[in-house]
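ok so heres the complex, two chains, lmk if somethin looks off
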Amino acid sequence: MGKGKKLVALVIALAMVATMAVGCSGSDDADTTDGGSDAVVIKLGIGAPLTQGAVALGQGIENGAMLAIDDFNAKDLGVEVKPFVVDDQGDPKTGVNVANQLTSDPDVIGVVGHLNSGVSIPAAAVYNEGGIVQVSPASTNPQLTLQGFDNVFRTCTIDPVQGAFAADAAFNTLGLPTAFVVDDSTPYGEGLVDEFVKAFEAAGGTVAGREKTSDKDTDFTALATKINAAAPAAVYYGGVYNAGALFAKQLREGGSDAAFFSGDGVYAQDFIDLAGAANAEGMYCTSVGLPLDQQPQGADFQAKFDAAYPGEGIQAYDTYSYDAALVILSAVEVAIDEVGAENLTSAEGKAAIIAAVAATDIEGVTGAISFDENGDTNNKAITLYVVKDGAWAPN
Amino acid sequence: MPLTRVLVGARGSTKAFPLISLEQLEETGETQVSIATIGQQLVNGVTLGGMYALIALGYTLVYGILLMINFAHSEMFMGGAFVGLFAFGWLDNYEFFTGSGFGIALMFLMTFVISGVVIGLLGVLIERVAYRPLRHAPRLAPLISAIGMSIFLQQAVLLWITPRQVPFPNYLPAGSYEIAGISINNIQIMIIGSSIILLIILDTFVSKTRIGKAMRAVSQDREAATLMGVDINRVIAVAFFIGPALGALAGIFSGMYYGSIKFDMGFIPGVKAFTAAVIGGIGNLRGAMVGGFLLGIIEALAAGFLSSGYKDVVAFAILILVLVFKPSGLLGESVVEKV
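and the predicted structre for the whole thing:
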């Protein structure tokens, strides 16, 4: 290899790195406008899947929390909050890595995140060790708040509530006597299906079969054929929209007319777009909380959102993420009074924030927010949605 | 009503063994295995296998000639799907293509050609910049270069196009046919039909044409072929054009079949297709085809009659069995050590 070739190779390698760097800088262009020179700067971590996994829902979580940060900074309390956005890729290992990244920055006083229960659960241990508060807007597996940590909270309700609600809706409201259940082998999907099965059988329904798939599978044709042969009245899927949409599409195209039923992980327009509107029509899902227009401050939020993110749609957890950030930032306000703005990032300040979050009693976008002894929200509203004319609508 | 099986013993004594009741039978999801269900699973498996086979050819072509595993090949599959998406989107603007059946057929043809050529040229370019400078380097070097290229291409699509899973259009008129309880739809017919036709064309190309002969010569003995006047760079470029082009078509098929594409969509099919190439005997074209179809069918049957969770376990267990009993793969030739 001559000198010229080595030079070419070097140039190509550098170009590859440079293009990546340019691309990357696009994703963390968080606002860094100075909020007055004398303001104390603290950081709020936001952890969600942004490049892999349920990206549509993850970006929604980022959007929601950002709005709450903007609102807080507009109050001009002598404290400026900067977002520290990390991408957990919907992957437990990556989740722990980014959690360590957040806790090793002393300015980070709390975290809004994560989306997937499988990510939130191991990350919670890291935040506990780091002594900062974690409020998940979307992780519904009960295990998250049962680990004995006093710093872990969530603004969404939990799977036993959702699974029981779905089972009741399927068996009693919709009159579906048999269900074939499928999960995506993640703590979220498995947990949700477990709860559904428990409640569905207790109500008198029959589970026609249970199958495990992977959240990275793309081919479900064989499973669809198998389900067709079992001819259940309903198919219940525990998982998120990426794989869920593929499964739903292949189930319909495989000729099944069983009612398709799933949880909050598929409550996204992407589910309908990916499955195809014709296939998705009439499919059901339950999602945490009330529909946006029935949430107490839903209309305000919609206006705020449209101003900040024109052309983007509100996703399932945006308001829950806003509320999760609101809970932490309200606690920051309490802590400012208790320990002073300069001490917010000390261990004492972080502990004061955790204590203030535990005692939360505020009105959020989604309704009144307060936490039980585990850190779960007392707002246990769940809504049944159905795909109507190519969009999710309350049933 | 519990079913019981009565066994009559040698001395006339009877013993009743309770089997599971019909209700339990329904509960556990065990259904009678009908011929139609098996047939349906075969259709599913052959469709999947057709895509695996098309990708596997790319691995095997390159291996046969360079003895190198092109790990960036799975990104050719992904890239082909994205180029296909853009080509469909562009042609969709012209009423000529969407108006008539002929127009739609032409649109498919053009999309296949555009995607195949773009990705084929990308394959040639990758060989030129990432592998050729390392041709005489230790064998690990091009391997690492290939992995790097794979990551680069994935990240490029993630950062510059989209990290999200995007819907893929399907212009094929919806329709399915039922034969003896087995239904097959237009996309499946198209995937199975096109993959078999492409495989036959490639097989003929390699065995009948001059450049095909040169490819076989290079795969047998690179130095001897060079001495006989074969332009080795040209042969390698051709292999790096055909493999990625076929991978690109598989990407379009996958997009149409599953209805969506994503920057990391190539990883799992890539691993599976590589497995298929190894099962069939890496370096052997017909082996890659057989391996692809076999793997697709095994997966469908395992998912259909055991459990979805076991399909990969079964597929890889079979890979291990094949390698234990026939290390060179089903159709692979045992290479005589040249002295």
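quick notes: Residues 17-173+185-325 of chain B form a domain with the ABC transporter involved in vitamin B12 uptake, BtuC fold (CATH 1.10.3470). thats all i got rn
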